[in-house]
Amino acid sequence: MTIQTHLTSIPSLLRSNSCHQQGENTISTATEEIDQLACQLMEKLNERSTALANGAQFDLALRDAEAIQLLNRSSSIGYLKAGYIYQQQGRQKEAVAIYQEGLSNVPSSDACYTHLQMQNAAALNAANKRIDFMSRLPLELVVSGVLPWVFRNYRLEADVRCPYLYVSRTWRQRILNCNNLSFGVKCGYRVMPLQFRELERFAAHVKNLWMEAGRTVSYEDPLLIFGDFHFSNLTHFTLFFYGYEDYMVTSALQAVHPTLTHLYLYTEDNMAPDIHLAYVLDHCPNLVALELTSWTVQHLTVQYPKLTHLALHVGIEPVPYDTMTNVLSHLPSLVFLDLFPVPGSRFLTSISQHCPHMKLLKCSGTVGFDRDNYHRHLDGLQKLSFGFDYDEEPYNANHLLHILLEHRRSLDHVTLHGSITDPSTLLERHNMDSTLEFGRLEQIEVAACNMQLVEFAAFIISRSPRLHSIAMDHYTVNNDGVCSAVTRLRNVRKITARNVVPDSPSFESLLHHHAQLAMNSPLKELEITFGVSASHLPWVSAVARLESLEKLVLSIRLIEIPSTYVSIIGMLAKGCPSLVYLDLESWRCTIPDGAIAQMKHHPTLQHLRIHASSISDSDIISLLSFPNLKHVIIVSTVKDYLFELLQKHIPHVEQRRW
């Protein structure tokens, strides 16, 4: 029974005497007045709902429409109003649903029943209408706006039909006119040979081709397609290859070389052919970017002014100094250079002479920079990554200091690994200059293998007032000079500390400094990795006192979790009042039962990531009690019913593989 029916229906009364007769008259009169008031209320709600919808306050308008339906389920007014609001928003499916609900509840005798039917039909027609933007929009708009969005990160397969190319002739023609198709081909040691029907059909319109090719005795060589297909618009070509003679790879290059601007040739096959840098540059004259795996590097004899990006990975032995300087002297336009292994440090002093436009230089085994992340109109080197974090012959400190000082006004990111010769004499000379600064340096990472590089890092940090992100490893994070220099920085937002030992007074002092600053501390992110088990970690209490900290990553690289892990999490749960993001990285360890539950009363935590070999069911269930948790990422095994339970109560839940 609806509210309106309940209010306006006349109750049955026994008519045994005049008193009852008088009461029945009163009830009848009151009921008629209630009926009139209900109708008036529905009219006013309808008027207000219309005004709200016209003012784009759709949620409030829908609330009034729902109130009308509650007052009288058998009236068409509420359904018509709700459907009208949905249609104003373009939500045709919702409009159809409410109209059909009305048709099932409203009697055919209703004055607006026919109108309700008509609106339902109109909403159905609108919901089923499809506009062919690809065919009807101007070609320029399709090419510049629609197609880049449709095909963004969309790699077609060589033997699978792309549905967009088979909608109509108009669609296919417009797509192909862009010559912007991207294909991926993986045809290594397969059980069955790969067909290339789609790639063959659209070869002339392929811009980007990614291929993994392994030659076998069983099937036809996949590289032979370059002799059969006409890739007239191919500009980007990536090839992972193994099992080939050199002439087989070079023949494929000769078939596509005129149009190539970006070429990436990789192999991990020790028996693979040696494709020389000079050969590639000579046969692909329009190359702008090249990544090449080669076993030797030969001298160049002519200039290649178009090449701006080069990544050169050369076997085991580094490129000799004279060869390296020869290569650089013939590549005057280089902006990005990635070398592996590091060809010593001496060549650093000649970079600016031979490559005056260099912006990014990576000579290390660490993760590199985004090759396009630089300021094009700023002169000088902007990002430098140099060295390896294992014991070897120390790099010459003089060479390293030369390039750093030369580009001190342009460098914004520096990564230094390994060991260097004693820099004391050099640093003493430059310490006399109080105006010397690395004015744009914002990020630095140091993984030192000797104390000389630690001293060098302290010098750089103390001269970099704009530093906001610092990553330190074992030697640097436990060094008084480095931590003291970091303490004096006013803009440091992120600190990454790796291999922190339990007793690390320098690091603890740095954390206490920021704890004393309370909400005035600029420190927002802290990542700590420790690989030594200990029952007592003094610096944990300092972390808990960081009032401005918003993101904390706690990573353990141990075989077993420390026995104090639950109490560590409990201490953090009672502190860190601004914490929003917590990442508990336990690698291949089991997180102790009750550790996660320690955080359930934290008032501000919204994002939680957990990586462990296993997590107890009780800790998983405890996530339901976190007051503000919005996003959970679990890198571990979770029972299906528990994962479904989390999904019902937490807005965003992810389970990822190892």
In words, what does this structure look like?
The protein is an alpha/beta fold. Among the domains are: 3-128, Serine Threonine Protein Phosphatase 5, Tetratricopeptide repeat (Alpha Horseshoe); 529-540 and 554-658, no CATH class. The chain contains 25 helices and 20 strands. It has a 20-stranded parallel β-sheet. The longest helix has 37 residues, at 18-54. The model is unreliable at 1-8 and 12-16 (pLDDT under 50).
Question: What does this entry show, briefly?
Answer:
By secondary structure, this protein is of the alpha/beta class. The chain is built from 25 helices and 20 strands.
Distance between the termini: 56 Å
Are there runs of 5+ residues with pLDDT below 50, and where? 1-8, 12-16
Oligomerization category of the chains in this entry: single chain
Shape: globular
Strand content: 15-25%
Summarize model confidence as the mean pLDDT: 88
> What is the annotated CATH architecture of the domain at 3-128?
Alpha Horseshoe
**Record field, number of beta strands:** 20
InterPro entries: LRR_dom_sf (IPR032675), TPR-like_helical_dom_sf (IPR011990), TPR_rpt (IPR019734)
Keywords: TPR repeat
Protein name: F-box domain-containing protein
